[in-house]
Amino acid sequence: MDDKITFWDHLDELRKRLILSIIFIAVGACGGFYFAAELLNIMEFPLRSRLRVSLHSPYISLITSHAPIKLVFIQPIEAIWTYLKLGLIAGLVLALPLVLYELWLFIKPGLYPSERNYVRVFVITGGVFFLFGGAFSFFVILPFAMKFLLSVGTGKLIPMLSVEQYVDFCLQFILSFGLVFELPFVLLILSAMGIVNPRGLAEKRRYAIVGAFILGAILSPSPDVFNQTLVAVPLIVLYEVGILLSSLYMKRKGARSGKEDPVA
Description:
Blueprint: H1 7-34, H2 36-43, H3 45-48, E1 49-53, E2 60-64, E3 71-72, H4 78-107, H5 113-149, E4 161-162, H6 163-180, H7 183-192, H8 198-203, H9 205-219, H10 225-257
Parallel strand pairs: 3-4
Antiparallel strand pairs: 1-2
């Protein structure tokens, strides 16, 4: 029996995986659209609630606004389009594990056993960090951001938020922080490619800390130090996690080659 797989066999396998992925996303989107009103209610969390961090018990508490701002739509199609968008995004999130599994089944035959382990760990942990970054943005950063942005000029201006623009604003924030929380894996990939190394990353730690606070000032719309620190501290922690992952990778690689790149 010939074990070789032809180019057309690859195309046929890819077509099969794509069709299944589209079906999974379509089914998830139908379910998401059915619960679109509940999803929109969840998306209003930054408008009506925020977390309060204190040095005394309870250390974390939830503050709810007594007069939350109501969302409006200014175009006839805006409300239904927003529901469709939320349903599609919910479908993508629900179907993502199955889509990634189909992708895994497609690329798995072309990988060595050691490469399969790396890809599996990277996809799972990378997905967890992305979700954690999005949750951190939604429950911690966005409530503070909305409170600050909507307090500017309220003496003469009345805030009226378009539901579509509000949802897009929140989704952009969530996506941005989800990508920022992939920093450890970016550093790990750069280390694997030989572009950076753990020693160099550790030596540039002070610059990374300064850069984290600069980025915190950019991402946080509030000018106070507390909100900037809320963004900067996780970035610093992620940078240290990146150094740790890079160091573990280099040590494992050095163990095979008889060399080791310690962290300063």
